[in-house]
Amino acid sequence: MTRPAGIEDETRPDLPQDLSQEVPTAPAGDSDDLIELLFFAYRDFVGDPDRILAEYGFGRAHHRVLHFVDRYPGLTIAELLDILRITKQSLNRVLKDLIDQGYVEQRTGTSDRRQRLLFCTPSGRALTADLTRVQVRRVVRAVEDPAGDGRADREARIASAQGFLMAMIEPGDRAAIRRLMARRAAGRT
């Protein structure tokens, strides 16, 4: 592969070190197939809620904010920025829409009055439930019996899918994501 003029370094600074290294060749294009399937799966996974969001004049950024604010009531703006990895300016625009239209509310922190804690309103919870319902339907269909033969164990398929998705996440981020998900799980008990 020829590098553009002026680039001597073997790594790209915009990629994590482990991803900038030479990729081993996968047999018979398996990795190409997986990448393509991920694109198609993502397209359909977000396409269902996109149709609902369009009715409200919202987009995917609104969906992501609603999802995490609903799952983690009392989330701070700083925590949400860390989860979404978007700019404060982008979040403020989306959050303003959701607050102005009555889907999210901000409350002052109890221990730190400078903090703004985020909560879904009843309307926000209802919209999030509608968005989640269509995605859950797609996920359940995928894990119930993907081969149509009834032979595979559902729990094993779920564990396999979760393991694959966790492995797709940057290694340095996995512990924080596990802690965040444990926080949600603890809230359910």
Structural notes for this entry:
The chain is mostly helical. It is 63% helix and 6% strand. The chain has eight helices and three strands, in the order αααβααββααα. The chain has a three-stranded antiparallel beta sheet. A hairpin with a 7-residue loop joins β2 (104-108) and β3. The model is unreliable at 1-15 (pLDDT under 50).
Condensed summary:
The chain has helices at 17-20, 30-56, 60-71, 77-84, 88-100, 122-144, 154-168, 171-188; strands at 75-76, 104-108, 116-120. It has 189 residues and is mostly helical. Residues 1-15 have low confidence and may be disordered.
SSE layout:
Layout: H1 17-20, H2 30-56, H3 60-71, E1 75-76, H4 77-84, H5 88-100, E2 104-108, E3 116-120, H6 122-144, H7 154-168, H8 171-188
Helix pairs in contact: 2-6, 3-5, 3-6
